[in-house]
Each structure stands twice: as structure tokens, then as C-alpha cells.
Amino acid sequence: MWCDILELATLSVIANDNGVEDKTFITREVFCNEKSVTTNEYYQSSQNGNEIKIIFEVKQIDYEKEQYIIYENETYKVVRTYKTNSEDIELHCALKEGLV
């Protein structure tokens, strides 16, 4: 059962009419399941500097290797992925401060 919605985001650099470059996200919504991070994975990721805060499960067909996720007004960076079966993929994410 897919009970949550997240935004998969790709960072894009767009230049305005004056030539000033601005970073912005191009997003699209997909259904997901929020999963808990295991204690072991949390501590191992903390030691590597990429503290995994949350795991999202989405359909593989929906995921196009986006590096950012926006969920409940927070921006996350995808640290690693894990295919759980032939249809689903887990996105292991760290909290990202600011836009980038």
C-alpha cells in the first residue's frame, strides 16, 4: 500500500535574462512508503559522514536516478539505493541543509 507522496527532484541551473545563474529544483510527485532506518545503518552511515535519516520505498519505474527528494518540507539527498524486488527500490537518504 502506497500511503505517502514525495517529490523526486533534479537540480537545474537556469540563467535569467541578465545572465545570472540560479539553482532550482525540477520536481515531480510519486507515491512512496516511508521506512525506518535500522540502528546499525544509522551508526555506520554517521561514521562515513552521510547520516541516513530516512528510507523511502518507491516503484522502480517511477525513479529516474534523481539525487534529491522533497518530503514534508524537508530536502533529502539520496545516498544509496537498494532494489528490494523486481518492482520496488529503496532510497536511503540524508537530510540536506539548504537548497544545495
UniProtKB/TrEMBL annotation:
InterPro entries referenced in this protein's UniProt entry, alphabetically: Phage_SPP1_head-tail_adaptor
Protein name: Phage head closure protein
Superkingdom of source: Bacteria
